[in-house]
Each structure stands twice: as structure tokens, then as C-alpha cells.
TrEMBL record:
Similarity section: Belongs to the methylenetetrahydrofolate reductase family.
Alphabetic keyword roster: Amino-acid biosynthesis, FAD, Flavoprotein, Methionine biosynthesis, NAD, Oxidoreductase
Obligatory cofactor(s): FAD
A GO term, aspect molecular function: methylenetetrahydrofolate reductase (NADH) activity
Protein name from the UniProt record: Methylenetetrahydrofolate reductase
EC nos: 1.5.1.54
CDD domains (UniProt xref): MTHFR (cd00537)
Coiled-coil features, chain-numbered ranges: none
InterPro entries for the chain: FAD-linked_oxidoreductase-like (IPR029041), Mehydrof_redctse-like (IPR003171), MTHF_reductase_bac (IPR004620)
Entry keyword annotation includes Metal-binding: no
NCBIfam families for this protein: fadh2
Length: 317
């Protein structure tokens, strides 16, 4: 079923979450067993992220570096099929511009349609850490809005090399990313919202936000998005802080602020266990407030580890 239908049918805030494909050489069994307890909270959909491998460089005797790999990490499509079969939930694969030509995107969408996937989250992706800025593949998409456009064109039977409409149409519901604290490359929130609106005008039907730790940022974002004329549902992304390392890593990686009140508590912690307790408690309070404000779903960034999300969901749903 489409995410928009799940949201429309919901009588209260839904529970949903995101998992990452295991690294190459690791099995899927552990991941599936790990997330099984979260099915207690009846998620109507589970997102599966997509990742590019970092570029691998070969050093030549003359000292020059040659880029030898732009590989994509496998697993997203297979995991979608596995979780739909095993848990009877909808799987939402993340689809990136980065690393994909338009033709590869078209082929990926055909595969997804054939395994019964009805929703995709369309994203640009980031530049590999070794590169300073995002560079699309030759003939790939520069921005997520172009990817949304391609998916919607396929929904209308328009494939890349077909002159005429095909008889078979896909029917994907497309979600996109939104940033309550602004995307780091956007020079201003107004600029970022202009292009968020473009994604919706191209056919995106819902927005999932980057994680945030201050609900006021989400509430203000929703207000600004609505003022910009965007009416689609905005699903808040939730991530409990669970380790000492994340206190600096999350703001640095995702360009977000930790509120003073949260930092005051985290600074008292000496162990990962103490941090986790504070992080979970903070997320519980965040979630309760978001539910009270009728957020469409609480979407957890689990990093494929279910225990913290389970503890939060148990208190909130
Ligand atoms: P876009 O919407 O294309 O925007 C990127 C930047 O370009 C923004 O600053 C925007 O303002 C600007 N922009 C957009 N259009 C234009 C235009 N026409 N002209 C000029 N500027 C423009 N990454 C992964 O690699 N794998 C994942 O699975 C993944 N999942 C994610 C899930 C969520 C919910 C979120 C919030 C992010 C996720 N990301 C993932 C990270 C995402 O790929 C990065 O944040 C990326 O830098 C931007 O992606 P986007 O789709 O928001 O890009």
C-alpha cells in the first residue's frame, strides 16, 4: 500500500523506522531477527537505506592516484523483498541520484516494481567523503527533484528510450527528504524550501525529515513549509543518542544542533550506558510531544539496532 494511504487511514500517529543494509560479508538473518521485536508496534512501512561505497584509489609508482571504484553497496532491493515477505509490511527503498545513470535508475525501478514495492524515498545522496562536492554520474541526476521527475514519468508510462507511452505503468508513491535545520549546502532556509517545493511539484507526496533534537525546530519547519505552499505530510525523523561518540558525530555529520537542556544532561554522563539512558529519555519526551501535535508518523533512525527504539516506542505507542 502507498505511504499516503497508510497516513490517510491512520487514526493516530504511526510508528515507522529505517534500517541499513548489512556490510558486505554479513548476513541478513541477524538484521531481521534484530528488528523483529519492533513489529510489536505495527509499523505499516520500513525504510531501507541505500549507500554508495567510498571511492577506492590506487596509487601509481609516479604518485598519481587513480579512482578505481564507484561501486554501490548491495542489499537494499533484496532486504525490501525479505522484509515484505517476512513481516508483511511495506518496504520503502531509498533511491539515490549519486552513483546511478538514468538508465540504471529506470532498471532499479523496474526491479522494485516487479518485487511489489510501491513506495520509494528519492534522494540525491552525498559526495563520497574523499570528494568535496556531489558529482552525478554521466547522464545521472544532479538533484533529487530530477529523480522524482523520472519516477513520476515512469508512473505515466514514459520510459527513457521509448518514443511512445508503454502500456504498463508503474505507480510509485514518492517521498523526499526535508531538513528542519536546513540542508547544509543551502545558503538559506528560503532557498532550501524553494527546492523542497520543486520536489513536491514534480510529484513527491510526502516528506521525511532529517533527525532533530529540538521539537521547536520541527514545528517551525512545518510552519515554514506550509507558508511556502507545500501541503504534503511531513514525517519527523527521530534518533535517540546512544553513545558518547554520537554527541559530537551527529551534529558534525548531519549539521544539526543539540539543545542546551539535552547537552546539560549528556555532559554529566561518564559511560555509553548513561548516555543511552539520557538519549532514550529525551527521545521519549520528544515523541510524546510530537504525538500530541498529531505528527503523521514517528520515523526512527535505528541504525539497524532495535533496542533503544523499542524502549522509546513502548513508552509512546
Ligand atoms: P536535494 O533535494 O537534491 O537537495 C540537495 C541540495 O541542493 C539542497 O541544499 C537543496 O537546497 C539544493 N538544491 C536542490 N535543487 C536545486 C536546484 N535545482 N538548484 C540549486 N540547488 C538545489 N543518503 C544516502 O546516501 N542514503 C540514504 O539512504 C539516505 N537516506 C536519507 C533519508 C532521509 C530521511 C534524509 C533526510 C536524508 C537521507 N540521506 C541519505 C542523506 C541525503 O542523501 C543527503 O542529505 C543529501 O546531501 C541531500 O539529499 P536530498 O535528497 O535532500 O537532495
Amino acid at each position: 500500500m502507498k505511504i499516503t494511504e497508510h497516513l490517510k487511514n491512520a487514526k493516530s500517529t504511526l510508528f515507522s523506522f529505517e534500517i541499513l543494509p548489512p556490510l558486505k560479508g554479513q548476513s541478513l538473518k541477524e538484521l531481521l531477527e534484530g528488528i523483529a521485536p519492533l513489529m510489536d508496534f505495527k509499523p505499516p512501512f520500513v525504510d531501507v537505506t541505500y549507500h554508495r561505497e567510498e571511492f577506492i584509489y590506487k596509487k601509481h609508482p609516479n604518485g598519481l592516484l587513480e579512482k578505481i571504484s564507484t561501486k554501490k553497496r548491495p542489499g537494499t532491493v533484496g532486504i525490501c523483498a525479505a522484509i515484505m515477505n517476512r513481516f508483511q509490511v511495506d518496504a520503502v527503498p531509498h533511491l539515490l541520484c549519486g552513483g546511478f545513470t538514468r538508465e540504471e535508475t529506470e532498471n532499479a525501478l523496474i526491479d522494485l516494481n516487479f518485487i511489489g514495492v510501491e513506495n520509494v524515498l528519492a534522494l540525491r545522496g552525498d559526495a563520497p567523503k574523499t570528494e568535496g562536492r556531489f558529482v552525478p554520474e554521466n547522464d545521472g541526476h544532479h538533484f533529487a527533484s530530477e529523480l522524482v521527475d523520472q519516477i513520476i514519468r515512469m508512473n505515466h508510462g514514459k520510459y527513457l528510450h521509448e518514443e511512445t507511452e508503454t502500456s504498463f505503468h508503474t505507480d510509485f508513491c514518492v517521498g523526499v527528504a526535508g531538513y528542519p535545520e536546513k540542508h547544509f549546502e543551502a545558503p538559506s532556509m528560503k532557498f532550501d524550501l524553494k527546492y523542497l517545493k520543486e520536489k513536491v511539484e514534480k510529484g513527491a507526496e510526502y516528506i521525511v525529515t532529517q533527525m532533530f533534537f529540538d521539537n521547536e525546530k520541527y514545528f517551525k519547519f512545518v510552519e515554514d513549509v506550509r507558508a511556502a505552499g507545500i501541503t504534503v505530510p511531513i514525517i519527523p525523523g527521530i534518533k535517540p543518542i546512544t553513545t558518547i561518540g554520537q554527541i559530537t558525530m551527529l551534529p558534525r555529520t548531519f549539521f544539526l544542533d543539540l539543545p542546551d537542556a539535552l547537552m546539560d544532561e549528556l555532559e554529566k554522563c561518564k559511560t555509553n550506558g548513561e548516555v543511552k539512558e539520557v538519549g532514550i529519555e529525551w527521545a521519549i519526551q520528544q515523541c510524546k510531544e510530537l504525538v500530541a501535535a498529531d505528527a503523521p508518523s514517528l520515523h526512527f533512525y535505528t541504525m539497524s539496532k532495535a533496542d533503544a527504539t523499542y524502549k522509546i516506542a513502548k513508552e509512546v505507542f
